[in-house]
Amino acid sequence: MSHDDGLDPALLRGLTQRRMSRREALRVGAAGAGALGLGALLAACGVSGTRQQAAKNKGKDWAKWWSQQHKTGQLDFANWPYYIDTKHGKHPSLELFEKQTGIKVNYEPVIQNNAPFYAKIAPSLKAGQPTGYDIIVMTNGWELTQLIDNGWLIPLDHSRLPNFFKYASPSVKSPNYDPGNRYTVTWQSGLTGIAYDPTKTKRKITSVNDLWDPAFKGKVGMMSDNTELGSVGLLKIGVDPAKSTPADWKKAAAELTKQRDQGIVRQYYDQSYIKALEDGDTWITQAWSGDVFQAQNSGYPHLRFVVPEEGVMSWHDNCMIPMHAAHPVDAIEWMNFYYQPKIEAMIEDWVWYICPVPKAREIIANKLGDKTVANSPLVFPTAEMESKFHDYYTFKGFHDYNEWNNTFDPIIQS
Amino acid sequence: MEQHVRSDHPVLSLGLRKRLAPYLLSFPGGLWLLVFFLVPLVAILSVSLQTGNPIKGYALTWHFSEYVDAVRTYHAQFVRSFIYGSISTVLSLVLMYPIAYWIAFYGGRHKSTYLLLVLLPFFVSFLIRTLAWQFILADQGIVLGTLKSWHFLPQSLHVLSTPYAVVAGLTYNELPFMALPIYVALEKIDPSVIEAAADLYANRTQRFLRVILPLSSAGVYAGILLIFVTNTGDYVSASLLGGPSTTMIGNIIQTQYLENSNYPMASALSTILMAAMLIGMYLYARTFGTRSIEEFV
Known about the structure:
The complex is a heterodimer. In chain A, the strands form two sheets. In chain A, strands 4, 5, 6, 7, 8, 9, 10 and 11 form an eight-stranded mixed beta sheet that branches. Chain A has a two-stranded parallel sheet with strand order 2-3. By secondary structure, chain A is α/β, with parallel strands linked by helices.
């Protein structure tokens, strides 16, 4: 058929086919607008970064800032559970502080773990708002580094901390995660080693390799915290975690995967690992030093904590003042008060982690008459033990951190 | 007189008021849903398509491959969650239907007491109840320890850290949500209907299968919906009662959000879980539900 009759096919189509109705046009338009609107809405939900405060703090004269602060008579203190002396539901060291200084302390043991607590306070700090706490306690690690790098901590006024410089153990002075103690002072330190029940294992445990012993199949407890798990894997392959590389992480992960797939691991535990050991669900487990000491003194005297020959991870929980805290002077006054040997001894005799004040030992031994604590190498480590201490790997950025998570998380959460 | 004035000069005409009424009535609820349901939903959808890191921030880049990564890395946990969710739903149906049936038809004047007894354990915090199971099922605990000391069970046997413990925990924790809707549905059945079936020579089995069961299907439907959706997304049972290979998708989402600050991955996983459940529920509703759920509600 020819088109010589001059009828354009497009016109023909237009004449014969149904045209778009007004309603349809509206519908299409509305759908288009909706899609665009949704797109804009989605784009508006971007999440901002966390470094704005650090930029604002640059060049700030903190000495002048401190000189303008005043004591308020109040202190809001966030700490971990069971981490201060307690008697009949009260805290004698805090009461003494209240009596001597007139500062009222609101003590809240609300910190269960570093990452969730960081996730809780980060939105306030990012928005430039106070967290509601004047002192928080965080372990050295990714979250603490973020708090420092984001400019979310108030640099400490060292002139107000004479006791720290006088009494603190060299092991907590100027640590690698906070050179010069610019932002933090240690609350307590601890070890991540191995705990076991000799009545079940029937032999002495000395090495990280014992966690891989097929004889303990289904009775080995490992930690669900991927820093702890990865670090023990690195010790197993003979690498110092602090100096490890992503290639080492892969090798360590392979060892840990093998351990899991052979059915040796009972479970990856959080704080409940100690209960599992007490109940006999596990015979040998990764463990924090203070917990084992507390268990020994509360009905499980047969449990043992060992510093394995390959080494032990040592960590520090630190006090710090978050940005925009309402009572910074009261907070730093507590930090200074805490570092007196007398006060440290009161707290240490109850907490049983590693004491940051060596002089507290005499007071615990003589004045408080508690030889068990004073002579425990888990509270006052020996030089031989200290030679086996290892630091955690320090993440060089989020990429690094993410790679660690992606290497070790699949072992814990399979 | 006043009446007259009012009808003469209405602020809004009667017709308009009638047409506006339903919108005004649904406004508070609608606003609530918009703020607490739609806004977070859009935010999650958005974050799942963003790239970046918590330090520099995240921006929308329509990074759809997050979804591919999510499925590729965590398909095992997705499948496991649906399996655990299904098993625990079926178990609670099998366990709770007879109880609801008994209370509805044989409870007599103590019906509310029996219902209260079903609910009673749930006055205790959900977390404490799960931890109590951890205590009861411990290797040397009151159950296994005793049976082992009598040599009924081998020493090496353990229940905690196995899929059985997780499914048992999931089932236990949601039992009343199955019992209550079924009870309500059974309770509503007019006894004369059953009598009529008996008059027409239906035996006990026929009366149950052809009269009672169909009439209670709305309750069963609601119970299944409530339990399956809750249990598939649960993470507490797996983390407290489970072991190295019982991780559910809820545990992964929690870790990615709270531990690793990997928001896009967590959001993508949440979106996939929600989409999969919505599709599943839609198919389920098309096959069994719609009419009866409307009737029930």
